[in-house]
Amino acid sequence: MRNPDNVFHLAIPCRDLDEAYDFYVTRLGCKLARRYNDRITLDFFGDQVVCHLSDQWDRDVTMYPRHFGVTFKDKQSYDNLLKLAKMRDIPFFQEPTHRFQGLVEEHETFFLIDPSNNLLEFKYYFDDRMMY
């Protein structure tokens, strides 16, 4: 069970720290926690994402098997982020989609793509028991 005092940590490659800063902080609205010559550490919706400067970022992008993001419990939060992404012209990898209609796992989702081709998925399940 998750203790709310703990923070999930994810490290991802990035090709350019200024691009990563612009995408995550300026456009997506994440908070910068720390910046060093080789990485930036972000408050990513309450968890920690570290963008490490690397030449090993993905050149051929596919959704599976690797992506990350947030599953929102609140529909308004999902809708607000979607609106922000459109308003700030953040690039979509996959436009908003409604999946598994009529099933218990029915949800809305969209994918964004950062400048280093990391894919971010954001979801909202109509039945919050499906979040896990």
CATH class reads Alpha Beta
| Poorly predicted sequence stretches spanning 5 or more consecutive residues | none
Query: Structural class of the secondary elements?
Result: alpha/beta
How large is the count of helical segments? 2
How much helix is in the residues? 10-25%
Beta-strand content bin: 35-45%
How does the SSE layout of this entry go?
Layout: E1 9-14, H1 17-27, E2 31-35, E3 39-44, E4 47-53, E5 68-72, H2 75-87, E6 92-99, E7 107-113, E8 119-125
Parallel strand pairs: 1-4, 5-8
Antiparallel strand pairs: 2-3, 3-4, 6-7, 7-8
Q: Overview of this structure, please?
A:
- With 132 residues, the protein is an alpha/beta fold.
- It has a single domain, classed as 2,3-Dihydroxybiphenyl 1,2-Dioxygenase, domain 1 (Roll), CATH 3.10.180.
- The protein has 2 helices and 8 strands; from the N terminus they run E-H-E-E-E-E-H-E-E-E.
- A 4-stranded mixed beta sheet has the order 1-4-3-2, covered by helices on one side. Strands 5-8-7-6 form a 4-stranded mixed beta sheet, with helices on one face.
- Strand 3 (39-44) and strand 4 (47-53) form a beta hairpin.
- The longest helix has 13 residues, at 75-87.
- Residues 6-125 form the VOC domain.
